[in-house]
Each structure stands twice: as C-alpha cells, then as structure tokens.
Amino acid sequence: MSILHISASPQQAGSHSRELGRHLVERLKSAIDLPVVVRDLAETPPPFPCASFVQASLSASTRSFANKSDALTVSEHLIAEVEQASAIIIDMPMHNFTVPAAFKAWIDMVVRPERTFRPTSSGKIGLLEERPVALIIACGGLFSGGAASQPDFLTPYVTRIFQTIGLGDVTSIRLEGTARAPEFVAKAKAQAKAELDKIAIRFETILLSELSHSAPRHERSFD
C-alpha cells in the first residue's frame, strides 16, 4: 500500500498546485503511516509515444510483451505505481484550458488497451482496481460563478480518463484566479485547503478500512 503523489507544474517554488498537493499528502501522512511515492512529471517528463511504443501497446499479446519490450518499460513502471497505490493525489496547473503536456504524456503511457482497459463493442472496460483519486487544479482565470469567462476542459477529461481504466472515484478541487491580487489568492487558497481537509477525512476512512480488512495489493517490480 502507498500514496501516489503526481505533480505536473513546471514551477517548483511558488507553485500553487504543488502547495495544495503537499497539504493533502501531509494531512494524510499525519493520520496514516503509509509510504508516499512521488512522481514529478515536470522534473522527469514521460516520453511521448513513439512508433515502437504504439506497436507494442497495440500488440494482441501486450501483457506478456510488456516484460520483453524496451518500448513499454516506462509505461510499465508508471502503471505499476498506480496499481500499487491505495490512493492517488494529482496536482497540476491548467494550461490552455486543459492538462499540461507532461501529464498528457503520462496519460498516454498509462492508458493502454488490454493492460489498463479492454475495448468492447459497448465501450471501454477498466482493468484496474478502484481506489480514490484527488485531482487538484490551479488556474489563473475564473471558471465558475458570475465572473466566469473561460471553459474547463481539464476536469471532465481527466475524470473520464480515470474512469476508462477503472478508477471512478475522482474528487476534484480547483483553485481559481491565481493571477489575481494576492489577497484574493490567499482567501481562495485557504478555502481550498479547508476543502482538502474534508477530502482527507474521506480518504483516511477508505485507507484505514483497506489496512484493516484488505489483503495488500500485489507488488510488481521491473528491472
């Protein structure tokens, strides 16, 4: 069991999304003694899909091929992190109404046919076990309320992506207006942290229940 913490902001110091992600992680760590696996997509961006990756991932024998093909090595590492996590916390900025490029690359490495989802005539079926996901988004503009002037394609897209691989329990929180005056940002951030504390309580309940009643998740390692 572990907590997988994914960050995608190009900024380190001063990143609002990273600050909120750390807040939730620390809140959970204070209540439950679980290791935290940090996946910093800005520091180590996943590769974009190449022709060999596409060929390997579309292979009918992709499950056995995964351990034989160098093209799938990164993908298998990233999928294993998800499989071994009991909860996933993702923080990222909104870039041009949607996800940063590094997170899109992560998606393309993780969402694979016959590995994390199965295509059927009635739609895609997720192959991963359910676990809670917290999606923390920081954006410079306003996307809700009377002053909203921009669309949010990020939240529904990421929610649908996780549903595709079997993770339907996605809770999102959005810190809006980070480009506005400091006092506005400080108030919005305090409200966001209060919401994250509520999310932490629900996650704690889920994690403690798993610790008490569930067998450990299957551990996978890759050379």
UniProtKB/TrEMBL annotation:
Boundaries of every Flavodoxin-like fold domain copy: 1-198
Catalytic activity field: N,N-dimethyl-1,4-phenylenediamine + anthranilate + 2 NAD(+) = 2-(4-dimethylaminophenyl)diazenylbenzoate + 2 NADH + 2 H(+); 2 a quinone + NADH + H(+) = 2 a 1,4-benzosemiquinone + NAD(+)
SUPFAM superfamilies referenced in this protein's UniProt entry, alphabetically: Flavoproteins
One family name in Pfam for this protein: Flavodoxin_2
Binding residues annotated for FMN, in chain numbering: 9, 15-17
EC nos: 1.6.5.-, 1.7.1.17
Kinase recorded as keyword: no
GO molecular function, one term: FMN binding
Cofactor(s) annotated in UniProt: FMN
Cofactor binding note from Swiss-Prot or TrEMBL: Binds 1 FMN per subunit.
Record keywords, A-Z: Flavoprotein, FMN, NAD, Oxidoreductase
Family stated for the protein in its record: Belongs to the azoreductase type 1 family.
HAMAP family per UniProt: Azoreductase_type1
Known partners and oligomeric status: Homodimer.
Role this protein plays: Also exhibits azoreductase activity. Catalyzes the reductive cleavage of the azo bond in aromatic azo compounds to the corresponding amines. Quinone reductase that provides resistance to thiol-specific stress caused by electrophilic quinones.
Annotated protein name in UniProt: FMN dependent NADH:quinone oxidoreductase
Organism, as annotated: Tsuneonella suprasediminis
